[in-house]
Amino acid sequence: MAGTKRAGYKLATYKTSEGPRAGLIIGEEVFDAAKLTGKAEYATVMGILAHWRTAEGALKQAAAAAGKSRIKRLPLAKTKLLAPISTPPTIFCAGANYADHAAAMARKSGMPEPADPHELNLKPWHFIKAGRTITDPGATVKAADYAKELDWEIELAAVIGRPAKDVPLEKALSYVAGYTIANDLSARDRGRRPGVEQTSFFKMDWTKHKSFDGSCPLGPWIVPASDIPDPQKLGLKTWVNGVLKQDSTTAKMLFSTAEQIAQLSINMTLQPGDLILTGTPSGVGAESGEFLKAGDTVKLWIDGIGELSNKIA
User: Fold this and answer.
1) Closest C-alpha to 303, from 154, 85, 96
2) Cα(223)–Cα(303) distance, integer angstroms
3) For the chain, is the Cβ count within 10 Å smaller at the N or the C terminus?
């Protein structure tokens, strides 16, 4: 899509006869990351992230010299891409983090438009999505029978590249290895415990709401943070069956990516491979009462990263 910036390389996981392998996508070709760099520990994306301090430079150097390499390359169009990280240590998801989404949900509930949380001295808050919820680009998510109110949520996902604890705001983004696209699929009707009063403090069921199988499509690759100079200046779009549903920008985040990392790292060490899903803008099904059903296709796009599509069954 027009407006997508071209990175020197993109980090991916792709399917081979030997199992999943980490790959560098350079132009329209895929190179085996371990073979191109000569480092066996780079056979997986998690292996690369575990060594990110040195891997970042090694990958850039290998990508720059790839055109002269004799290492076998594969055409991207014929290569099966998997989720770049299949089982991240932790998936942190920002709650109510876009001004336009928060305002739309307030209007639906007949409530006044919420104030900027900074004015109320509030901090970012997150919930956790199970790591096993990750699903591949192009995969079919079998959830239509599980939830009657299955919702889409495009999210910019920051991938942590080195241990981060008590990180100051001004240094927070230096702990990000790269960015990818996530769909925080939500089972809205499963998030409320049946038989529990709506006024009860214990009414929510976040596990059934957010952590069902396939509820976190991820990919199609990771763009290095060095190729995304400002994560708060990226366009986002979501289509359902070709109809545009979400059309916003990361500039509308209430709490920036850096603010979220700094807050999460307070007395807790973020680990390489952790994902931070930074929130979703307006246009989700919960605002209109329209939800996903069997046969639907959801396509997400983020400027500078690319597209992620999945089907619902």
Assistant:
1) 154
2) 11
3) N
The full set of domain ranges for the chain reads: 10-82, 91-312
One CATH from 3.40.50.150, 3.90.850.10, 3.40.50.720, 3.40.50.1980 for 91-312:
3.90.850.10
Which alpha helices (H) appear in the chain, and where do they start and end?
Answer: 33-37, 45-50, 52-65, 99-108, 206-210, 257-264, 285-288
Nearest to 157 by CA among 175, 137, 178: 178
pTM for the complete prediction? Answer: 0.95
Each of the 313 residues of the chain gets a pLDDT tens digit; together they read 444 444 489 999 999 999 999 999 999 999 999 999 999 999 999 999 999 999 999 999 999 999 999 999 999 999 999 999 999 999 999 999 999 988 888 787 788 888 899 999 999 999 999 999 999 999 999 999 999 999 999 999 999 999 999 999 999 999 999 999 999 999 999 998 999 998 898 999 999 999 999 999 999 999 999 999 999 999 999 999 999 999 999 999 999 999 999 999 999 999 999 999 999 999 999 999 999 999 999 999 999 999 999 999 9
Token digits for 153?
């949520």
Q: How far is CA 283 from CA 56, 186, 188, 200, in A?
A: 36, 14, 15, 28
